[in-house]
Amino acid sequence: MAIVEVLKYSGKKDVLAWKYPNQELGTWTQVIVNESQEAVFVKEGKVLDILGPGRHTLSTENIPILSKLINLPFGGKSPFTAEVWYINEAYALDVKWGTPTPIQLQDPKFDVFIPVRAFGQMGFKIGNAKKFLTKLVGTLDIFDQDKIVNYFRGLIVSKVKDTISTYLVERQKSILQINAYINEISESLKEEIKPEMDEYGVKIANFYITSIDVPEEDNAVKKLKEALAKRAEMDIVGYNYTQERSFDTLEGAAKNEGGVGADFVGAGIGLGMGVGMGGTFANQMGNITQNMGTSEINQEEKCPHCGARVNKNQKFCSECGKQIGLICEKCGAILKKNQRFCSECGTEQIKKCHKCGKEVDKTQKFCPNCGEKI
């Protein structure tokens, strides 16, 4: 039997728990423990003792429980088998985390579903070596920082989603404004995650969100930003969506030679003059375009939120900014009421409660059957 005389750590810097490869020890074996380390002795699944930094000689004086677990037939000098784990207790402050896929969140300000990604950095250390070794490491030979992130990724993503959603709903902020509140959300997330990781002997030192963003290539994001840009343009110029469509209709009619638009422009009334005259002229143009029989004006309806007149193909109200019709969560196409599948991408639109399976309306926050939060 080979007797190990000197044990010392030879793992990498980012390793949190490392098992010494040889389990054949002796009561004369010396164990070297570096600063910010602890050596944990395990025999038959039981923790014998934990040694701090320094040079230690294994003996029944240093580890009294040895005399109960092994025989000492050689004058107190005896070989035995046990595992020696080195636990790294130094702070790791640059561990990166992120959501592997975008999280679908409903924007409380515009009532649309937006994919959201979050990235950040956290710092931690092993606060309880025995708890960490028995509850998290298990039978692995090496446990590093990447495994910490993998083990707790589900917890982090779940807490990030809940915290951001709660923050947006309580403060009625758009997801496009969320980066202004990153520090507050980071601190809140730290307090949410801390007790969960304490259960496994991991102590959180800090938890930061470095960025919260939305995929620019997503159709829903593109359409929302286009609508917001158009709304800002209208606010600057001083007219609404209905007036703009009236102007566009008259401009098109004016380009048709011999049509009613040509006669109208020939009478000395132009589009620039219409803008200058404001709301009164806009109302007159609305009446004219109705007489002209334009299909776009005939397709107007009322916004269900504020009552403003909007086009049926419009996704957002130009007055209150809220969503008018149903929108496919995948491709952003406008849907009809009770439409089960998107006519553009074919995605099923029926939403079901993940607890009881009952079909629910997309606007509902809680399941009417079991009360589960949707």
- Helix percentage: 25-40%
What is the CATH topology assignment of the largest domain? Tetrahydropterin Synthase, Chain A
Give the CATH class of the largest domain. Answer: Alpha Beta
The largest sheet is:
5 strands, antiparallel
Q: What's the alpha carbon Rg, rounded to whole Å?
A: 34 Å
Proportion of beta-strand residues: 25-35%
Uncertain runs are: 258-282, 288-298
CATH superfamily of the largest domain: Band 7 domain
Q: What structural class do helix, strand and pairing data support?
A: alpha+beta
Strand order of the largest sheet: 6-5-9-2-13
What is the correct CATH architecture of the largest domain?
Answer: 2-Layer Sandwich
Net shape:
elongated
In whole angstroms, the N-to-C terminal distance is 63 Å
Element-level helix/strand string: EEEEEEEHEEEEEHEHHEHHHHHHEEEEEE
Count of structural domains: 4
SS summary, helix count: 10
What's the total number of strands?
20
Determine the mean pLDDT: 75
